[in-house]
Automatic annotation (TrEMBL):
Domain of life: Bacteria
Molecular functions (GO terms): putrescine:ornithine antiporter activity
Protein name: Putrescine transporter
Keyword Lyase among record annotations: no
Origin species: Loigolactobacillus rennini DSM 20253
Family of this protein: Belongs to the amino acid-polyamine-organocation (APC) superfamily. Basic amino acid/polyamine antiporter (APA) (TC 2.A.3.2) family.
């Protein structure tokens, strides 16, 4: 009975699920969405439906699977060890890329807060500094990192909720309508141009079912919480970004490196805008801190499964995968230099699209494996049909997200993926050779 009382209710799990998605990914979204105009709300609706389909499918996979390893374990049902490796590898790569984008967000807000006019090289160098600072602070171990990240996430959530509620008092319907399609995109091009950036906001939904052992009646409550959390996050995303578009002129948003700070300065005073920017920098850095440790843990667990080199499994006394962190941060530093762009927003967009492309690969592998998973785990046929239908919808949306990411991101993601096949060739004998090799 004592253990039952400690378990989360469906409401608590729903809130946690929404908060996990509403991290620092949103803070640069208004600037990127301004490239399309307020018709990007249609992209939000498409992505919200796609994200809910993905979230539901992952919640079922989490309950049905008897294999560990998250998406790698899901992929193994249909694609064997090669598929498991590719899912783990592309997921790890997407996290490495995504954290570089988060670091750029922090640099953008800090530059505006302190009145610094950074050129593209300076943006890259400050991004590298931010990444290394987060890595160094992680040397203290997971416990300290977890406490900091849990606290700092509210630096984003509070302003997002505040503008969603209070922003209506400054909202101009005329400004919003005038910004509907300022760059005269066709209907489908306008929707497609924002799909990858809106999906970026939902990345991490695959981890929503990770707490299934800690919730009451998981078979019933996990799908409810996953869908509820995704809907809740979608509402906050759609409200905050669209209300902002009715407060701040499109051109001002388009050229801002700190859109939420700009919005609160417009609503209240520059001092309030500065406070919001400081909160978001704090939140962004806290998120960066937590994810740098999480990425190293993903690589460490993959190394234990013999997918990644042994060097990633090495830890220091407090359990920190120090060597792995250093290698990962070095790769992120190189990535920051390779993606130098004319503007901070442009560099952020390049990294976001690349992160989305690499993250969609394990999504597709997982969705494609659900049918085999359910057959092997003896799931009743009635339940199979519903899950397979939703997984198919999720897969179609994922393919559409790949298509809309653009040729540059697709080419970069393809190179990363193909490099993974080469890497698997070096270790495949551990799983696939019929005779043990000495």
């Amino acid at each position: 009975m004592a253990q039952e009382k400690k378990k989360m209710s469906v409401v608590q799990l729903t809130i946690i699920t929404a908060i996990n998605m509403m991290g620092s990914g949103i803070i640069m979204l208004p600037t990127n969405l301004a490239e399309v105009g307020t018709m990007s709300i249609l992209s939000w609706l498409v992505t919200a439906l796609g994200a809910m389909a993905l979230a539901y499918a992952f919640s079922r996979a989490g309950m049905y699977t008897s294999k560990g390893g998250g998406m790698g374990g899901y992929a193994e049902y249909s694609f064997g060890k090669a598929g498991a490796f590719l899912a783990n590898y592309t997921y790890g790569a997407s996290l490495v890329i995504a954290n570089a984008a988060i670091a750029i967000s922090a640099v953008g807000y800090a530059a505006v807060l302190f009145g610094a006019d950074l050129n593209p090289l300076e943006v890259a160098l400050w991004t590298i500094f931010t990444l290394w600072l987060a890595t160094i602070l992680n040397f203290g171990g997971a416990r300290i990192t977890g406490r900091i990240s849990t606290f700092t996430v509210w630096g984003v959530i509070i302003p997002v909720i505040a503008i969603s509620i209070l922003g209506w008092f400054w909202f101009s319907g005329t400004r919003y309508i005038n910004a509907w399609n300022p760059y005269h995109f066709s209907f489908f091009k306008g929707i497609g141009k924002s799909i990858s950036i809106t999906l970026w906001a939902f990345l991490g939904l695959e981890s929503a079912s990770a707490n299934m052992d800690s919730v009451e009646n998981p078979k019933k409550n996990v799908p409810i919480a996953v869908l509820g959390g995704t809907i809740g996050a979608a509402i906050m995303y759609i409200l905050s970004t669209n209300i902002m578009a009715g407060i701040v002129p499109n051109q001002a948003l388009l050229h801002s490196n700190a859109p939420f700070g700009l919005a609160f300065s417009t609503m209240f005073t520059p001092a309030i805008g500065n406070i919001v920017m400081a909160l978001m920098i704090l939140s962004c850095f806290g998120s960066l801190l937590g994810w740098q440790f999480t990425i190293a843990e993903v690589f460490r667990s993959s190394a234990h499964e013999k997918y990644f080199p042994k060097i990633f499994s090495k830890v220091i006394g407090n359990g920190t995968p120090l060597v792995g962190m250093l290698i990962i941060t070095a790769c992120q530093s190189l990535l920051a230099l390779m993606t130098i762009s004319p503007s901070l927003s442009k560099q952020f967009t390049i990294l976001v699209n690349l992160a989305v492309v690499t993250n969609v690969i394990p999504y597709l592998l997982s969705m494609a494996s659900l049918k085999t998973m359910q057959l092997e785990e003896n799931v009743p046929k009635a339940k199979q049909r519903k899950t397979n239908l939703i997984a198919t919808i999720a897969a179609i949306y994922s393919l559409y997200a790949l298509y809309t990411a653009g040729s540059v991101a697709l080419m970069g993601g393809s190179i990363v993926t193909f490099a993974g096949w080469i890497l698997y060739g070096f270790i495949s004998h551990r799983f696939d050779a019929r005779k043990a090799l000495n």
